[in-house]
Design brief:
- This protein is mainly α.
- The chain has one domain: AhpD-like.
- The chain is 62% helix and 0% strand.
- The radius of gyration is 17 Å and the shape is globular.
- It starts with 16 loop residues before the first helix and ends in a 10-residue tail after the last helix.
Length: 190
C-alpha cells in the first residue's frame, strides 16, 4: 500500500486488469511500486515498457550489473523499498551474502571488479551530483571496458531508478518481506 488509493486486482477495470494479468503471468505477482500506478493505467503501461526494456532487454550489461546499479542508485537516494526489492533480484546472481550486504549498505565497501566499480561510481555520481558529470566520467567507463552501448544502458538504468525512487518515496510505497520475495525472474534477452 501507499499514501494514495490503489486499485486492487478485484476492482481493476478493462484497462487495468490486462496489465495486472500480464504482471502476474510474467513475474508471479504485482509489486507495490506498480500498484501505485493503478489510477493511471497508461502511465503504468509506459513504465513497464521502459522497465522491461532496460532491465531485461538486449544489452552488453549483465543482469547482475543492472541490478547492482538499481541497488547503488536506490541506496544513494535512501529508497529502502527499491534497495530491498532489487537486493532480492541481485541475490539470484550474487551468492555471497557479505558482498550482497556490502553492496546494499555502501558499495564502496564491497569487493568489486574494476568494471563493476567503475559502473557503481558512475551511477552514484550521476545520482548524487548530476551537474558535475563530465566527459572524463565516460572515459573512465571506457577504460574499464564498457562500450558506448553499455554506457548508454548504465545511464538509462541510473536515470530510471532515480525516477522510480522518487515515485516510491513520494507516494510512500510500502514494503514487507512478503512483498519483496517470490517474484519470477524474467529471462535475460541480451
Amino acid at each position: 500500500m501507499s499514501w494514495i488509493h490503489e486499485v486492487p486486482y478485484e476492482q481493476a477495470d478493462e484497462k487495468l486488469k490486462p496489465i495486472y494479468d500480464r504482471l502476474i503471468a510474467q513475474r508471479g505477482k504485482i509489486s507495490n511500486i506498480l500498484k501505485v500506478h493503478s489510477l493511471n493505467p497508461k502511465a503504468l503501461e509506459d513504465h513497464l515498457s521502459l522497465y522491461m526494456g532496460i532491465m531485461f532487454g538486449p544489452s552488453g550489461l549483465k543482469r547482475a550489473e543492472r541490478e547492482t546499479i538499481a541497488v547503488v542508485v536506490s541506496r544513494a537516494d535512501n529508497c529502502d523499498y527499491c534497495v530491498n526489492h532489487h537486493r532480492e533480484s541481485l541475490a539470484r546472481y550474487l551468492k555471497d551474502e557479505n558482498q550482497l550486504d556490502a553492496l546494499c549498505a555502501d558499495y564502496t565497501q564491497a569487493d568489486l571488479s574494476p568494471r563493476l566499480r567503475a559502473i557503481c561510481d558512475y551511477a552514484h555520481k550521476l545520482t548524487t551530483a548530476p551537474g558535475q558529470q563530465c566527459e572524463a566520467d565516460i572515459d573512465t567507463l571506457r577504460q574499464a571496458g564498457l562500450t558506448d552501448d553499455e554506457i548508454l544502458d548504465a545511464t538509462l538504468i541510473t536515470a530510471y531508478f532515480n525516477f522510480v525512487n522518487r515515485i516510491a518515496l513520494g507516494l510512500g510505497a510500502a514494503f514487507s518481506s512478503e512483498e519483496m520475495t517470490g517474484y519470477k525472474d524474467v529471462p535475460d534477452a541480451g
